[in-house]
Design goal:
By secondary structure, the protein is an alpha+beta fold. It has a six-stranded antiparallel barrel. Strands 3-10-8-5 form a four-stranded antiparallel β-sheet, with no helix packed on it. The chain has a four-stranded antiparallel β-sheet with strand order 7-6-4-9, with no helix packed on it. It starts with a helix and ends in a 21-residue tail after the last helix. Helix content is about 35%, strand content about 35%. It contains eight helices and 21 strands. The chain has helices at about 1-30, 105-150, 160-205, 255, 335-340, 350, 355-360, 415-420, and strands at about 30-40, 45-60, 60-65, 70-75, 90, 95-100, 205-210, 215-220, 225, 235-240, 245-255, 265-270, 275-285, 290, 295-305, 315-335, 365-370, 375-380, 380-385, 390, 400-410. Helix 2 runs antiparallel to helix 3.
């Protein structure tokens, strides 16, 4: 009996040892399936439906200051800070911007003044000639009257009679010639006065002055450079009247232009401040379309406030026209709404009701519920910005973790212990749902 008892005890010990060995082997060398989850956090803010376009930041009013005469640039004026006029100089209306060589235009003015004096002398001479001609006419007329009285009485020869008549007619014609000379001199006077006005104006054009208050955006000449003014004025400076008010000129595709209207809100970014959004409003849709590679686009003007001076002319703008906006709402990515979990990662309490959450027309987001399982939260969806979708549910909270994908991983038991050191709910590719517009 003792022999069988010892045999039974030995067998039990052997079985126990084998069980321990098997357990240890599985613990250190066995394999097991685990799930790794990609996640994101729920955002709270505004979600908008938008139309995207690109454009350029432009001054609201830009004045092109040109030269109306040709000549060499002799010097520049000084700006409000006392420095020579240059890029970004602040100028005021009437301030001297540049001087053009005046020598030729001063000479032309002197010549015009001399021509005027000459015309004045010609007028005086013509008037004196008229007086002389009129005096001779009076004498010739009297002689002619006398001849008409004497000749019928036989007291004057026929030749003298004819001479008196001819002298009278010549004197009369000379008066008319003198009067015509006066008119010619007066016409020369008008020509000389017009030439003098032109010369004075051309001389004044040698001093380039600012027509408005503003800031120099572009200086297109240098001291010593010669300007050649043809049919159009040579451009010298570009002046922005007020950089506190800027515009964005956006090119909008013809497929979207019908949705753009005056007063439409706009948000945009510029490459130099990629994380800062600027706001604006549509003020004009230009009708002169352009075509490039069979694509028709229209220019839309957008007014924006630039009181802080952050925007400078000609920055590239990434524009979003806001068609509709849902403010102060939770939002998730499209991936979160498209996610369909496998039954094995769903908490047991919900596995039998998957059709209630994954059925057609259902919208559900999934959140962690335990170490390796998820639970559903039914949501109502709203506007979509393309990157984010507005969702609502009493269970949602800002910053809540939402699962967007999962993958299965086979690990050794020893490696599993390492995996257990961190949560399986890890956002492997960090993403951030960016709201389409700032709240106001």
């Amino acid at each position: 009996m003792k022999k069988y008892l010892r045999y039974g005890i030995g067998t039990a010990v052997a079985v126990a040892v084998v069980a321990v060995v098997v357990a240890l082997w599985k613990n250190f060398y066995g394999e097991e399936n685990i799930f790794l989850f990609s996640t994101e956090t729920i955002q709270f803010g505004n979600v908008a439906t938008t139309i995207s376009a690109s454009g350029t930041v432009e001054p609201e009013e830009l004045v092109n200051v040109g030269a109306q005469v040709s000549g060499k640039i002799m010097s520049f004026g000084v700006d409000t800070d006392g420095n020579p006029v240059d890029y970004r100089s602040t100028v005021t209306k009437g301030m001297v911007l540049a001087h053009i060589d005046e020598v030729l235009y001063e000479a032309a003015l002197s010549e015009a003044k001399a021509s005027k004096l000459k015309a004045q002398v010609q007028i005086l001479s013509a008037k004196a000639t008229i007086n002389q001609a009129q005096a001779k006419l009076v004498l010739a007329e009297r002689n002619w009257i006398r001849a008409q009285e004497l000749h019928p009485k036989g007291s004057m020869a026929r030749s003298e009679y004819d001479s008196s008549e001819a002298e009278y007619l010549v004197a009369k014609a000379n008066v008319e010639v003198a009067e015509a000379s006066l008119k010619e001199a007066e016409a020369q006077m008008e020509i000389a006065e017009a030439a003098m006005v032109k010369a004075e104006r051309n001389l004044s054009y040698c001093v380039i002055v600012s027509p408005v208050d503003g800031v120099i955006v572009d200086r297109r000449v240098s001291v010593g450079q010669t300007l050649v003014s043809n049919m159009s004025a040579s451009s010298i400076f570009l002046i922005a009247t007020d950089l506190k008010k800027m515009q964005v000129w956006a090119s909008v595709n013809e497929a979207d232009i019908g949705s753009i209207h005056n007063g439409m809100p706009v948000v945009f970014t510029v490459d130099t401040f990629p994380d800062e959004e600027f706001e604006g409003v549509v003020t004009k849709v230009r009708l002169n379309a352009t075509m490039s590679q069979n694509v028709v686009t229209y220019v839309v003007e957008i007014d924006t406030d630039n009181s802080n001076g952050r925007l400078i002319p000609y920055l590239t703008a990434n524009v979003k026209f806001i068609k509709a906006m849902q403010k102060a709402t939770f939002s998730v990515s499209n991936a979160a709404l498209r996610y369909r979990p496998d039954p094995e990662v769903v908490s047991p309490a919900y596995r039998g009701k998957l059709d209630d959450y994954l059925g057609r027309g259902k919208h559900t987001v999934w959140v962690p519920d335990g170490k390796q399982t998820l639970r559903p939260i039914p949501v109502e969806v709203g506007l979509s910005s393309g990157a984010a979708v507005a969702v609502s549910s009493p269970e949602l909270k800002e910053g809540m973790t939402i699962v967007t994908a999962h993958r299965q991983k086979v690990v050794a038991a020893g490696d599993k212990k390492k995996e257990d050191l961190s949560s399986p709910f890890v956002n492997k590719v960090p993403t951030r749902v960016r709201n389409s517009a700032k709240g106001k």
